[in-house]
Every structure is written in structure tokens, then in C-alpha cells.
Amino acid sequence: MDLRSNLFEGPLPLWGSNITMLYLRDNHFFGPIPLDIGEVKPKLSNLDISSYSLSGTIPLSIGNLVDLTTLVISNNHLSGEIPHFWDKLPFLYIVDMSNNSLSDTIPRSISSLSYLRFLILSNNKLSGEISSFLKNCSHMLSLDLGNNKLSGNLPTWIGKTMPSLLILSLWVNLSIGKIPSQLYNLSNLHILDISSSRMNGHIPHCLGNLSGLKFKLTEGETTRYQGQLQIVAKGKE
């Protein structure tokens, strides 16, 4: 069901238990995500309820959507911690929870998502370090943790365990230390944004050898990297 970009309003509706795809972004729905969404729509594989005025927390029942491949709940007013249900969602390919007010740390159970390609958590209030468990997501194409409250060092393992990475965005965090020379291994990297993150030390010469870096993405490349998610490369338009 695709009802994107209309003027529908009111609480988020839930129709029919047999719906597998639900695209409701860019409307005027408000209020919380129904707590029983995982029971009412158990067959959902694609869920996009972004760009609303949805509030409250992320329902635990989303963990019952075992066929889910796409979860986009960005650009809302969601708060609280990110739930620990990710090990129940083995087929997730895209997770976009950006532009909310989510807090606490990135849950360890995200490391169980072996199919994950796009993890977009920017513009929240997440804290803690960029934990090593994320290195289990070895097929990642886009990792965007920008504008949070993350600290610690930029992990060296990113350059070793995410060889297909196209987008790495860590802009505006509390402190992520030095730029590790291991980033040289990211030969496919097209966007690297670590601005305003209190980086220190020397800039490794090897960054100039990243053959994939470009100043501007074509429309076709943007579609390739993010599926139906639009990437805005800050400072590159």
C-alpha cells in the first residue's frame, strides 16, 4: 500500500493484517506508533512512516515483524532508547531512524543484522562509543551516525571489516579522536564526513589515495547507494 505524499491526518492508521508493504511518508499523521503494530501487521516487509509528527517511543512489537527488510521511521519526534529487538529481524536491509530524539547507546543486537546495508541514525541524541560489535555488519554500504553525542576513537576496524562502504558520516559528535590510516582500505568510499567532531592529530596522507571519493554524486548513484532514501551530501552540492 503506497499513500506517500498526501494530506492524510490523524493517528497512524493500521489496515489489514495481510499488507506486506506500507508506505505512508510525507503526510500529517500524529501521535504514537501503535504499540501493537507488530501483531496487527505481522506480514510487513517494508515499513516507511517517516516525515510525520509521530511521537513517543519505538514499539517493542516491531520485533515481531520477522520478514521486515526496510524500516524507515525518520523525521519524527520519537524519543527514548532504541529497543533491543534486532536479533529477531534477520532480513533487515535498510534502517533509517534519523532526525528524531532517540537517546542512550546503539544496541548491541544490531550486530546480528547480517544483511544490513544502510544504517542511518543521524540527528539524534545517541551517546557512548562506536562499539566494535558493528563490525559484524560487514556488508554495510552506508553508515551515518552524524550529529549525535558519540565519543571515543574512530574505530580502525571500519577500514578492515566494511570494505564495501560507500558513505561514512560521523559529523558533529563529541569526540572521535584521530583519523586511522586503515580508512585507506575503503577504496569504494564516496562520501567521508567527519566535520566538527573534534578530530586531532595528523591527516593521513593515504586519504588522498581513496579512489572512490567524488565531489558530487549523480542521480543514478544516489539511487544505487540509498534505494529510496535520498542522500544529501553536506557541502558537496
What would your notes on this structure say?
By secondary structure, this protein is mainly beta. About 5% of the residues lie in helices and about 20% in strands. The chain has 3 helices and 15 strands. It has helices at about 35-40, 160, 220-225, and strands spanning about 10, 20-25, 30, 45-50, 55, 70, 75-80, 95, 100-105, 120, 125-130, 140-145, 150, 165-170, 190-195. Strands 2-4-6-8-10-12-14-15 form an 8-stranded parallel sheet, with no helix packed on it. Strands 1-3-5-7-9-11-13 form a 7-stranded parallel sheet, with no helix packed on it. The longest helix is centred in the last third of the chain and has 8 residues, at about 220-225.
Concise description?
The chain is 7% helix and 22% strand. By secondary structure, the chain is mostly beta strands.
Number of strands: 15
Largest sheet: spatial strand order: 2-4-6-8-10-12-14-15
Mean pLDDT: 83
Largest sheet: 8 strands, parallel
Q: How many helices?
A: 3
Helix content: under 10%
* Morphology: elongated
Strand residue percentage: 15-25%
Instruction: Give Rg in angstroms.
Output: 18 Å
Helix/strand layout:
Elements: E1 9-11, E2 21-23, E3 28-32, H1 37-40, E4 46-48, E5 53-56, E6 70-72, E7 77-81, E8 94-96, E9 101-104, E10 118-120, E11 125-129, E12 142-144, E13 149-151, H2 158-161, E14 167-169, E15 191-193, H3 219-226
Parallel strand pairs: 1-3, 2-4, 3-5, 4-6, 5-7, 6-8, 7-9, 8-10, 9-11, 10-12, 11-13, 12-14, 14-15
How would you describe this structure in keywords?
237 residues, mainly beta, 8-stranded parallel β-sheet, 7-stranded parallel β-sheet, 3 helices, 7% helix, 22% strand
